[in-house]
From TrEMBL:
Belongs to the FlgM family. Keywords: Bacterial flagellum biogenesis, Repressor, Transcription, Transcription regulation. Residues 1-16 have a biased composition (Polar residues). The keyword Repressor applies. Residues 54-105 form the Anti-sigma-28 factor FlgM C-terminal domain. NCBIfam families: FlgM_jcvi. It comes from Fluviispira sanaruensis. This is Negative regulator of flagellin synthesis. GO terms for biological process: bacterial-type flagellum organization; negative regulation of DNA-templated transcription. It holds the Pfam family FlgM. Residues 1-32 are annotated as: Disordered. The lineage of its organism: Bacteria, Pseudomonadati, Bdellovibrionota, Oligoflexia, Silvanigrellales. Responsible for the coupling of flagellin expression to flagellar assembly by preventing expression of the flagellin genes when a component of the middle class of proteins is defective. It negatively regulates flagellar genes by inhibiting the activity of FliA by directly binding to FliA.
Length: 122
């Protein structure tokens, strides 16, 4: 459609012809809807094929193996308990107080670091 005006009167018979450029400016200035914003982010995301190609780092494999070993290790080592019971009953158990103190301190330090890792990370 074309713009039809009556000469000299300034009357526009097709108001959309003038409004179209203004509408385009308003559309550009208007904020995108949430759906448009999400689409803009998602359109550059990797394809399903690319997302299916996952590489597991050597560190992740080590951690997985360590977790498996920890899960398979019993909480109480009955063999050690029996050994210490036997030594205590015979009067042969002589604990090393230095090793005990070191163990207590090591565990306390680990607990504090677990609460606030910035202690060692600065």
């Amino acid at each position: 459609m074309s713009v039809n005006t009556v000469k000299g009167s300034g009357v526009i018979t097709n108001p959309n012809a003038v409004a179209a450029p203004e509408a385009a400016k308003a559309e550009k200035a208007a904020p995108k809807s949430s759906a448009q914003a999400i689409y803009a982010k998602v359109k550059d995301a990797p394809s399903v094929k690319d997302a299916a190609n996952v590489q597991i780092s050597p560190r992740a494999k080590e951690l997985s193996m360590a977790k498996k070993i920890a899960e398979d290790t019993p909480d109480v080592r009955e063999d050690k308990v029996a050994q210490f019971k036997e030594q205590i009953n015979k009067g042969e158990y002589k604990p090393d107080s230095g090793k005990i103190a070191d163990g207590i301190l090591r565990e306390a330090i680990r607990d504090e670091i677990a609460k606030d890792p910035s202690i060692i990370l600065g």
